[in-house]
Specification:
alpha/beta, 4-stranded antiparallel β-sheet, 10 strands, globular, binds adenosine-5'-diphosphate, binds magnesium ion
Length: 249
């Protein structure tokens, strides 16, 4: 297996507050990896660093062996890193279909113009992305009228529309019902298997993570406490103390 993402000793401070502290991690191509940690651990900041929304004070980030540390977000997206946000980020007044189509066209560097024959390509690609998350039947619906769970799935479809090799999902099940959560984790496994996508997601719900990811990184106060397969991480003494201990007591 080859390494698709490598984060080396990355630190990010906001004024004097250290949100991400000397974080190093590695993600293998074709795998599902997860970052777990309580609120405030630095998960979203780490994802913002990887996707170029923030730049680190120190450290390097490599994607497919090439340094991307200081590239702007759209260039990183073009290179093949897609993402969703912790808070659903769709255009509520546009249709479900148009939300994805706009993302596909932006990725292809075209603008939305319905008389252009190139639109046909975007239509098929948008349909493929919507079908992948099970939203094709709701393609004509106004996005703002979707359930919260479906809006989060739409976000994944939008990210798929940019043809990522690595997909970052920021708390994909936040606000979902238990049934929606199970379905979303199934979807993540299916996307990895069927599309050969590498997925890195973060969560604060540990059960969700242990059942889905092959590699888990535990984040606490901006640092990675442990990383490895679920059984190794579960047994890690520092993790037990800092993260698992509280609920077991
Ligand atoms: P998580 O996603 O794990 O809940 P975040 O990465 O959102 O954690 O936040 C980590 C810490 O950094 C928190 O204490 C948060 O308040 C702080 N933080 C995040 N973004 C900013 C910012 N733009 N300015 C100042 N502090 C921030
Ligand atoms: Mg967060």
């Amino acid at each position: 297996m080859s390494e698709i993402l490598r984060v080396e000793e990355v630190t990010k401070t906001f004024d004097r507050f250290v949100a991400v502290q000397g974080v190093s991690l590695s993600v293998e191509e074709g795998t599902i990896a997860a970052v777990i940690g309580p609120n405030g651990a630095g998960k979203t900041t780490l994802f913002n660093l990887i996707t170029g929304i923030l730049h680190p004070n120190r450290g390097r980030i490599l994607f497919q062996g090439e340094e991307i540390t200081y590239l702007p977000p759209h260039v990183i997206c073009q290179r093949g890193i897609g993402r969703t946000f912790q808070i659903a980020n769709v255009f509520p007044r546009l249709s479900v279909f148009t939300n994805v189509q706009v993302a596909v066209l932006a990725h292809q560097r075209r603008s939305l113009h319905f008389t252009h024959p190139a639109e046909r390509l975007a239509i098929r690609e948008a349909e493929v992305a919507l079908a992948a998350v099970g939203l094709l039947e709701k393609a004509g619906q106004v996005a703002g009228t979707l359930s919260h769970g479906d809006q989060r799935l739409l976000e994944i479809a939008i990210a798929l529309g940019t043809e990522p090799r690595l997909l970052l999902l920021d708390e994909p099940t936040a606000g979902m019902s238990p049934e929606e959560t199970v379905a979303t984790m199934k979807l993540i496994r299916r996307l990895a298997q069927e599309r050969g996508l590498t997925i890195l997601f973060c969560e604060h719900d540990m059960e969700v993570v242990f059942a889905t990811a092959y590699t888990i990184m535990v984040m606490h106060h901006g640092r990675i406490l442990a990383q490895g397969p679920p059984e190794v991480v579960r047994a890690h003494p520092e993790v037990q103390q800092a993260y698992l201990g509280a609920s077991d007591a």
